[in-house]
Amino acid sequence: MTEPLLSVQDLHVHFLAEPADGRGAGAVRAVDGVSFDLAAGQALAIVGETGSGKTSIGRALLGLHPPGSTWGSIRLAGLELVGSAEAEWRPLRWRRIAMAVQSAGTAFDPVYRIGEQIAEPMREHLGLPADEAATRAGALARRVGLEARHLRAYPHQLSGGEKQRAMLAMALSCEPEVLIVDEPTSGQDVLSRAQLLDLLRQVRVETGLCLILISHDLAAAAQVAERVAVLYAGKLVEVGTAREVLEQPRHPYTWGLLNAYPNMTTARDLRGIRGHSPDPSDPPSGCRFHPRCTQAVDLCRQAKPPLVEIGGRLIACHLGGLQTLLQASDLRKAFSSNGKGEVVTAVRGVSLEVYEGEVVALVGETGSGKTTLGRLLVGLLDADSGHVVFEGQDLAALNGRERKALRRRIQFVAQDPFDAISPRLTVAAIVREPLDVQRFGSVPERAKKVRDALRAVGLPAEPPFLERRAHELSGGQLQRVAIARALVLDPKMIVADEPVSMLDASEQAKVINLLKEVQSERGMGLLLVSHDLALVRKVADRILVMRQGQVVEGGPASRVVTRPQHEYTHALLQAAPALGWEVGQV
Amino acid sequence: MRARITSYLVTLWVVLTLNFLLPRLLPGDPLAALLDPQSSDYVFDAEVRAALEACYGLDRPLLVQYGAYLRGAVTGDLGQSIRLNEPVGELLTGHLPWTLLLTGSALGLASLVGLLGGAEAAWRRGSAADRLLTAVSVVTSNAPVYFLGMMLLIVFGAELGWFPLAGGRTPFSHYDSIPAATADVVKHLVLPALTLTLSLLGIQFLLVRNNMVAILGEDFMLVARAKGLKPARLKWRHALRNTLLPFVAHLAAQAGLAITGAVFIETLFQYPGMGRLIFEAVGARDYPVIQGVFLLVAIVVLTANLLADWLNTRLDPRLAEEVSR
Fold first, then answer.
1. Could you tell me the CA-to-CA distances from B107 to B189, B193, B194, B203, B246 in Å, in that order?
2. pLDDT of B220 strictly over 60
3. How far apart are CA A572 and CA A556, in angstroms?
4. Contact A93 B226 (CB under 8 A)
5. Closest Cα in chain A, distance from residue B255 (Å)
6. What is the DSSP string of A177-192?
């Protein structure tokens, strides 16, 4: 590989915080050790949430930060830029590296005409006479889809989209080698967003410039750039090809970001990443994502993970990326139905995985073997062959004591709570039972756990309710109690077998939303066994379709619902009650 | 623009009315001296006093006086001074040029220095020079104008003797040439104009500096920097050009301030402008003169505002559009 056109190594941008709070000046670590290379003609998307430091990287590439706040290395065709004086930066800006800034709405001087402002850098850098610069500004405007009247207009007379285009024309005016485009689509409606992305692609093809797209918009990144770098709290967490990163995210943050991203093809409800973005002046120790990560271990709190190559992409994660929570391989189970030696095979060779913090729906009609599979996965049944590995432990290899300990980590919610729960027990006793079995803590500690679990499922945690008997509760209440009972041990994963099928439509929606909420809040894995495709698509990340003991189709929920591959999935979708409507919407 | 002119006319009417009422709310009246047995002007005869009141129209109902006043204001007949027994119009035309000369030169100088200094200070915000200039401006803009005047008078008038102590020109002098006359007027103008400049400069400077600091933080200035423009171009063509908009709007308000400042300064320097006329007329409750002077001041301030409005529509394309709409 030849030398990259732009090489950024270990870039830092720290600002002195305003000492307004009296605590003395602390450094805001906007960018904290970012490295990437870009060959001529390549496009890289830098993706991250607001405040992740994306814009600071863009500005650092133009030397716009106050002196002394930037260090590391930025090399443009071998020329080191970091530490250059303002006078050395000036001829580079716009001429070799230009930027279309995020806030095009306020990026133009309000007192000069648009055309004048596009022409200004051409006179300054290329030494063009005024009339020639104006002519070229006209040509640039046509290229980005503006007309002569737009050039004669003042900034306040243009719409947001037109300003965005004018910004792009201005950025292209001196034919830079590197073009930085900061949030080109923010605040744009869908249509002008699509047109703008088209335009960016077209510009790339025509000019062959090197493009850096800064965006929180993952879809935009995928459409314009071939490589994506995911930034979190000033550090890169995952870098790879756009296709790899966006279709199979490996870092837990990227995965969470994708789940939080609205998408036309997903029917699922949106979910944010739990917790909040860190304070850049006081970032978390170790891996900066660990407070929000569902799979964080002690190492993550202690040491910063390096950005290393794993499977063809760069990932900064001590665990090498998203962990597999539960893995089943080639599970088989047969029952002898009636003592006559007639054998019914319920599960015939199923393999599946559930990742950290993932919701997987196992869908199939009655008799498809999904309930049996659910019970195999949590060790309530033993498989005839195949393995279930949970957090690296093979269930079959566990002894009695270990199996009991496993209950703390994986819990099962049964289909019919009236069937699974003794009607004479009080609510408190039902929820406390797993704690008693596990001999968890002291009596007051157990009582507190019980109250927390009940609150988490939206039930009262006061004495009158705690003393109610199971048979006095409604179906919805009892199912919530059952979920609280599953949560009380803080499990890593819950397998829920038709948790809402006994409830009416409105209760169904409430309880399924509750399960999703609790799962997201606690960062658990959730396997949802259901016959109702319409219902689970609202919460599932992935859907597996089961028929006659086998998984016939599996994939991201959006794809399975909108583009089913297997005819059986088609049939299930057809059978789903009015899929166009929101089922049991509350 | 038509709506704007209408609003100015309404303002003018309100000013005219206030101008009529306010002097009459002052305790005492123009003929008080004539009624005071202690005064040398004491008129013993009640009939003569009544005749005097009738002569100045002071015995008529207030509403009738108001009507006569408005008619006079429109036709340009501002009446007779009770104290000096001269037509008010002539008094005003005699004094106005001096005040215009004084405030105009002070305002112009303060604006020029304030713009250039404020722009430089904003450009080097946080530097030692910026902090010093800002501190000095805060002090001078808050110092009483007569204190500033006294200091200048003592140092440059009395001690150094560079400039005359009082007046608008040398009394009883005859000039051979226009340059000689100009030189004499300028010599008398320097100290009062400098005093007024100093008192206005601080505000001008702070206004320009603070507005420009805000503008330097705008997105378009970041873009202009990213465009690799030369520093001079950033500073003058983009930052200062945008700072002019709030500055011009403020300048009109300063015109009023300059004239009130001039009252003190003209009194201090015995300068023959409107300030002294006001001062003396108020002391004597000389209603026609007070009315005339304040009317003129109001017209000057309103005209300055109208000018500033017009100038801003030329400077700011956003306003231009609003006006043409």
1. 13, 9, 10, 11, 16
2. yes
3. 16
4. yes
5. 26
6. SEEEEE-TTTT--HHH
Mean pLDDT of A24-32: 77
Q: What is the DSSP letter of B217?
A: T
Write down the ipTM of this complex.
0.77
SS3 B10: helix
Pick the more confident residue, A9 or B309. Answer: A9
Q: Which residue has the tokens 């006179």?
A: A123
What is the DSSP code string of A84-105? Answer: --HHHHTTTBTTTEEEE-S-GG
- For B8, B222, B231, the CA distances from A64, given in Å and listed in that order, are 47, 8, 13
Indicate the pLDDT class of residue A92, thresholds 50, 70 and 90.
very high
- Confirm if A545 and A361 have CB atoms less than 8 A apart: no
Distance between CA A99 and CA A184 in Å, rounded?
11
Query: Which of B219, B228, B317 is facing A124, going by the closest CB pair?
Result: B228
pLDDT bracket for residue A585 (50, 70, 90): very low
Residue A38: its pLDDT value, please? Answer: 92
CB contact B228 to A (< 8 Å)? yes
| Among the ranges given (A49-53, A210-214, A333-337, B33-37), the one the predictor scored with the smallest mean pLDDT | B33-37
Which residue of A lies nearest to B218 if distances are taken between CA atoms?
Answer: A106
> Which candidate in B124, B218, B223 is best for mutational testing of the A interface (most A CBs within 10 A)?
B223
> Which residues, at least 6 apart from A146, have a Cβ–Cβ distance to it below 8 Å?
A162, A165, A166, A169
CATH class of B94-324: mainly alpha
User: CA nearest A123 in B: which residue?
Assistant: B229
Helix ranges, A127-212 (H): 130-143, 148-152, 160-172, 190-207
Residues 6+ apart with CB under 8 A from A463: none
B220 in contact with chain A, both atoms CB, cutoff 8 A? yes
Give me chain B's average pLDDT, please: 83
A120 with B229: Cβ contact below 8 A = yes
**DSSP summary character for residue B39:** S
Q: Is A2 a residue whose pLDDT tops 80?
A: no
Q: How far apart are CA B169 and CA A412, in angstroms?
A: 105
Least confident of A40-44, A303-307, B61-65, B102-106: B61-65
The distance between the two most distant Cα atoms of chain B, rounded to a whole number of Å, is 86
Mean pLDDT of all residues belonging to chain A:
85
Predicted local distance difference test score (pLDDT) of residue A96: 94
E strands in B22-130: none
Average of pLDDT values for A85-99? 92
Q: Work out the pLDDT band at A423, boundaries 50, 70, 90.
A: confident
Per the CB < 8 A criterion, the answer to whether A269 and A562 are in contact is no
Task: Provide the token pair at A299.
Answer: 């190492």
For B36, the token pair is 């005071």
Q: Return the C-alpha torsion angle B98, B103, B104, B110, nearest 10.
A: 150
Report the 3 state secondary structure along A471-501.
Answer: HHCCHHHHHHHHHHHHHCCCCCEEEEECCCC
- Grade residue B322 by pLDDT with cuts at 50, 70 and 90: low
Mean pLDDT score, B110-117:
93
Domain ranges across chain B: 16-75, 94-324
pLDDT tens digits for A29-52?
A: 899 999 999 998 899 999 988 888
End-to-end CA distance of chain A: 57
Q: How far is A65 from chain B (nearest CA, A)?
A: 10
Whole-number Å distance between alpha carbons of A307 and A239: 9
pLDDT (tens digit per residue) in A436-453: 888 888 888 888 889 888
Which letter, b or e, does each residue of A66-91 get, where b requires 16 or more Cβ atoms within 10 Å of its Cβ?
A: eeebbebebbbeeeebbeeeeeebbe
How far apart are alpha carbons B106 and B202 in whole angstroms? 13
Q: Which amino acid is at A59?
A: R
